[in-house]
Amino acid sequence: MPEPRDVAFRGGGFAPTRRRLAAPVAFAVLLLAWEGAGRAGWISPIFLPRPGAVLEALADLARSGALAAHLGASLSRIAGGWAIGTAAGFAAGLAIGLASLARSVGVPLVSALFPIPKIALLPLMILWFGIGEASKLATIALGVFFPTAIAVHAAVDGVPRNLVRMAQSFGVPARDILLKVVLPGAWPAILAGFRITASIALILVVSAEMIGAQQGIGQFVLQAGNLMIPEDLLAGILVLSLLGLAIGALIGAAERRTTRWR
To answer: pTM for this one?
Structure first.
């Protein structure tokens, strides 16, 4: 009779392990290869300037104060439009998730209007609100409103109904059920929706600034492209990438702080 032996555990499923150095090393290798190819003349600086030239252009923009001016204009538009759209979308999504009448009216309306590209409505926003900041804020808010409403509605629907029924059976007031059962249960999914809407706000602010703005990262990128200055063009794109990463990090920090109970 063969001796018993240990069998390796096979039930780990698809659980990827986090390797912290993998991404930095991959980026470093890519940038070094790009820099080397540029210095060797294998890549034309007219079409793709090397990373060192892009960083030099970014440093010049920072020293001149142009970067702060463009970045400040874009950030104020993102913050204002995202806040307005999120507040309205949160209220609408909560109403759709909780009230039968709001669901009957809101779901078809949101489904019909959500697929419309919001940047296509910018000329209409300009007609209504003028060429100034109001039209850009309205476009961003409109683009953020619909995915926020959908995310909040889906998050509220995802809260287990047995928890709500249990609270009701113990006579918990409706306000406390909303604040202590529904919203905490829906909050992680709502934060995931905020990540998406923040990216949408960034995309829309760039598009709106390209169409009609005197300042902003989108306007700077468009001007650099029109003037055929690839270093400035890629510097603007780099700023947009870093801005997106910073917004994602802020939402991630808020998620960790507000969902410690998980």
So the answer is: 0.82
